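Record Sugar kinase, 299 aa.
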Amino acid sequence: MEHGTERHPAGLFVGLCTLDVVQLVDHVPGPDEKLTAHDQLVAAGGPAANAAAGFAHLGGRARLLTGLGRHPLALTAAADLTALGVTVDDLAAGTAEPPAVSSVLVTAASGRRAVASTNAGRHRLTAPDGLGALVAGCDIVELDGHHMELAIAVARAARAAGRPTVLDGGSWKEGTPTLLSSVDVAVCSADFRPPGARTPARTLAYLHEQGVTWAAVSGGAAPLVWSGPDGQGVVEVPPTAVADTLGAGDFLHGAFAYHWASVAERDRADHFAVALAQAAEVASRSCATFGTRSWMRRG
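=>
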């Protein structure tokens, strides 16, 4: 069977998984201030984890390579993803210390969030045995750049196996240039700033200089700016009444990976902007409700 043409594409997601503790508040409290939250959510988070959850929600078969450990908080995050249809490969399964916990405050009036997290600093992950077979069994590989040593190994294996690689460029990280040498598609946020790049156009140019074929830069509700071998353009983000922007970028990437992988390889050159538009619709929809899970229950 040709990869990318089946009804339920298989995606391998590599990167960060946290436990998110999210509170809906009227405002971010000041020093020594206590306030009562209107709502709360405890769920798995992190760019790769949320992207995998979004991919699975759309009908894909999602597998997550990450580091969690066996602490009870880690088991809570893993259980959340399993319930959403994501297969979790925990490369830190023997670790007893707590996973990365993201403390998130969402301001009710604006939907904007404030986040504090240790991110991927607790675990140094290396590629698992059987990586070649794992990569060969998927249709697309997405990497968020966290656990960089693992990300580079997986990206190289995917390149060797002829599987497309997608980078979720949330921010510039040490090792990013090495990773980019094995990346086919990069969809980056406005916070992803290569050295000397101060505009989306310069970021796109830098990505192409590193060998990335297709590239885009997102900016929240602003249009996505993209370029590829045969053209460039912008993709509008559908307007929505914003309740919570948490995870929107992650779901943009998960949805893009799903729609890109659902198209036959020979047709992808004509489908990049379409896949971005489909992904932007999903990201916009995720902003309409509080938390990172309510939008999935709405369909």
